[in-house]
Design a protein that fits this description.
Length: 60
């Protein structure tokens, strides 16, 4: 299973929540993660990390 961290440089653009709506939500212009939804949605999480315009999504 992967783990995800959103770094402080998130600009709240919404790309991650568009690509992986089960896992990512935007709250007050910052992405938050539904950790219990990561399992089974790993590929969309990887897409979100790749498309984040500021590289704020780190996968472990
Ligand atoms: S794609 Fe990146 S910058 Fe945009 S909301 Fe998600 S984590 Fe933040």
């Amino acid at each position: 299973m992967i783990d995800i961290k959103v770094l402080d440089n998130c600009i709240g653009c919404g790309a991650c929540s568009t690509l992986s709506p089960e896992v990512f939500e935007i709250n007050r212009n910052f992405a938050t993660i539904n950790y219990d939804k990561i399992s089974g949605h790993e590929e969309s999480c990887i897409d979100a990390a790749l498309f984040c315009p500021v590289g704020a999504i780190k996968l472990y």
